[in-house]
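=== Structure Prediction Worksheet ===
Name of assembly: unnamed complex
Input type: mixed (protein and possibly other molecules)
Chain count: two
Listed entries:
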Amino acid sequence: MDTQSNEFGTARVKRGLAEMLRGGVIMDVVNADQAKVAEDAGAVAVMALERVPADIRRDGGVARMSDPALIEEIQATVTIPVMAKARIGHFGEAQILQAMQVDYVDESEVLTPADEAYHIDKWSFDVPFVCGATNLGEALRRISEGAAMIRSKGEAGTGNVVEAVRHLRSITSEIKKIISADPAELFGIAKNIQAPYELVSEIHRTHRLPVPLFCAGGLATPADAALVMQLGAEAVFVGSGIFKSGDPAKRARAIVEATTHYMDPTILLKVSRNLGEPMVGINADEVDVKMAERGW
Amino acid sequence: MALTVGVLALQGDFQEHIAVLSELGVSTREVRSPKDLSGVDGLILPGGESTTMSMLLESSGLLLEVAKALSEGLFAFGTCAGMILLAREVLDGRSDQNGFALMDIAVRRNGFGRQIKSFEADLVVNGIDGPPVRAVFIRAPVVEKVAKEVAILAEVSYSFDDDTHRVVPVVCAQDRLLACSFHPELTGDTRLHQLFVSKILSEK
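=== Predicted Assembly ===
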């Protein structure tokens, strides 16, 4: 058979990697040592970045794509997929990340947005993209731009899961509404949530989001992971929650176990014991910058 | 069909396998702990991260129990990470990576390259009639060595990063084991799963 028939960068190939990460934990890491700890603990992927969201919050200033040398060092250290973040609308950063062969690009509200009107045209890339969403309309707009995975935005760097729960519940309840709607109502729903009719219709037909739905933003404990998995998340991102805690290796491992055994309280109890100090956390109404409001 | 196939449900795209088996009318069971293995006629090892699955197999007690069941003749079908779990030898893995080491093949983890090198291809699979099988390879393992006891049911041709152009095995069978380096569960084509189910039924 000729290689001419091998096709790269198809929607199925891009979404396929997200399918493989299901039931797993993707961990934020800022250097090779942390990446090793994450892989040792059973992470399915790492997100390589210079500062975790809690530090971006603390430091202020413009948050940009990480130095490629840092990402390359992490790529050289682990065997699992390596993701990295580009600013919303910053296709220049995304092109560099693709040239480095990162496995997924996160067009992320955690960084300072680069474009106030447009997100990246993700169809024009072979590397897959994940984007955040706070509701179904936002999720479907990102999918129509080519996102191959959706994650709740939550409120990154707070250690508070409440926003992630709000976004997840909002997305899943709107999906349920579409499933039970009369076909004639789908046009009105699409208009109301400002999403393409074709994607709304696809949900009505298939009973699921066209791409995997993961949860991110404020997760800090094994119980948090179990909570969002039971609410319909298919995998979890943990940012500041691991390496801002007292015993990162143990907590990381516990969150991996909790994400797999999210329906088994006996195992959840066992892995939740003696994890040391969690990250301190910030309440949602004490947050100065709402990262979740970035993007639209 | 009075057949129950377990699907290892620790991590990865196990739901996709369950959907394909259900379409074939096969009863399924999610396997997360040793007790879930009782009464299953076959076991599917799905796609996912093999390092993560290896750790969860150990902590759940399934590593030893599945190995025992396989040695007693349980049928198994591994896709992608599942193929790695079945392979006798794993290249470019982690040194502490555990598996069942039963199929006499050597596989190289992520052998086609990073995600950007992931691809789709049409395959002719020995034993499957009709149009070609559309195969989706995601950071897939490359089968580097195959013992003579192993039957190669399909191959793919690929231009590798080192500028070599090679034809490598992608579907392998040995005794009660079937393994493929791609994801038949992602395309809605039920024929490879049917092949596995037929294999079980022929000896049941």
